[in-house]
Amino acid sequence: MTITLITGANKGIGFETAKQLIELGHTVYIGARDVERGETAAAALGARFVQLDVTDDASVTAALATVEAAEGRLDVLVHNAGILADGVVDGPAALRAFDTNAVGIVRVTEAALPLLRKSANPTVVTVSSSMGSFWAVTNPERPEFNIPLTLYAASKSAATMLTVQYAKSQPGIKFNAVEPGTTATDMTAAYGFGRPAVESARTVVRLATLDEHGPTGTLQDEHGQLRW
After folding, report:
1. Which pTM was predicted?
2. Which of 29, 152, 166, 191 does the annotation list as catalytic?
3. Is 152 considered catalytic here?
4. Residue 49 in 3-state DSSP?
5. So where are the chain's domains?
6. 151-187: per-residue pLDDT in tens?
7. Which class is domain 3-225?
């Protein structure tokens, strides 16, 4: 039985990733800040719920302690929690964006490492974005070129770099980042575009189910590895 934890999984790409992994036989823990929404999502999927706010150290520690007590290990960690941060650009907004989209990855990864090391095939997937790719945002032929999301792009660049650095420092664990594609979620609702989350979740699931010979330290979309 593969034990999986997904942050921010009560809706959107995280929810659909959980659904697809459960269908593949994973035992999935849904992490969510809001207890009621998280429990509702878990019940709908047949998943397990842990209260998990990636911006709160105590919440993260408690969530991983719950997984450890119940399972003794963690096989797959999916960093899905994130915010768009598309409002005013100032210091407090920047701190919030980076705390959720980048520092949250550090908090959860560090708390999860002891459990991941107990897995026979430990895997970490970060839902990042090609908005954080210097290659993509400076390429006029790419859609990212014309999207001015300063804090989101910068924090996702940090998220991808964390993926690469963890892959280097933790050679026994696979770390990969995902560009899931433009997706219609609550986060992008104001823009009125994007494909269904079920489609974007497939790339997350592909990287979450790599065998022991799979790649590490990459940023990938549905077509394969991306430059960044």
Report:
1. 0.93
2. 152
3. yes
4. strand
5. 3-225
6. 999 999 999 999 999 999 999 999 999 998 765 455 5
7. alpha beta
